[in-house]
Amino acid sequence: xxxxxxxxxADRPVGTxxxxxxxxxxxxxxxxxxxxxxxxPRGALS
Amino acid sequence: xxxxxxxxxxxxxxxxxxxxxxxxxxxxxxxHNIHPPSHVETIDSAKLHLGGEFxxxxxxxxxxxxxxxRVTLVAGxxxxxxxxxxxxxxxPVTFRIASMDVLHGVxxxxxxxxxxxxxxxxxxLTTVFPRPGEYPMLCNEYCGMGHDHMWSRLTVVSAxxxxxxx
Lengths: 46, 166
Hints:
- The complex is a heterodimer of chains A (46) and B (166).
- Chain A has 1 helix and no strands.
- Chain A has 46 residues and is mainly α.
- Chain A is rod-shaped, with a radius of gyration of 21 Å.
- Chain A starts with 13 loop residues before the first helix and ends in a 7-residue tail after the last helix.
- In chain A, 4% of the residues are buried.
- Chain B is an alpha+beta fold and 166 residues long.
- Chain B folds into 2 domains: 1-35; 45-161, Sandwich (Immunoglobulin-like).
- Chain B has one helix spanning 5-32; strands at residues 60-63, 69-76, 79-81, 84-88, 92-99, 104-107, 114-117, 122-128, 133-138, 151-157.
- The longest helix of chain B is centred in the N-terminal third of the chain and has 28 residues, at 5-32.
- Classes of the chains: A mainly alpha (46), B alpha+beta (166).
- Chain A binds chain B through residues 13, 20-21, 24, 27-28, 31-32, 35-36, 39-46, and chain B through 6, 10, 13-14, 17, 20-21, 24-25, 28, 32-37, 110-114, 125-130.
């Protein structure tokens, strides 16, 4: 069984990296906004 | 154990994100003294009306010497008593709530005020209402056929316009 030759960029998936890093950054910023911008201003509970 | 270098990068990123979010929670919890309602104080729910803090004439809003405000409420099917309370914005408000019958919950939408009211225990929590306005105070623990009608009104007024005992 022969293997297809891999392209030179196969070990450097820059597009995937950028997409996932962008999603991770967006989710982190959204969480921080909800926590500091919405949750805490509604009054701390103790 | 071999881990692909690319997977290792994402592992570090995911752990970094979780560490950041947990650190934010821990820091603000310590900074603002935030914690879930954890007050433990027992009371005889069947005798609330016979005297003491939760007798009918003692219920309501009172100003405390330390600048805070205390709200004493009784929850019962199907309402919170007194039915209408008024508290100042921006000042610590301590709720003390007891149930006269079954399990209830108290929730004020658009704020963080929420707790369970377990029969036999006094539910106590302290919060600050930052914005004046009219808020419903809802029961969020199913307590019987009239549960969806169980609500009272909470009015938050600016501290300058608030007068204790109203």
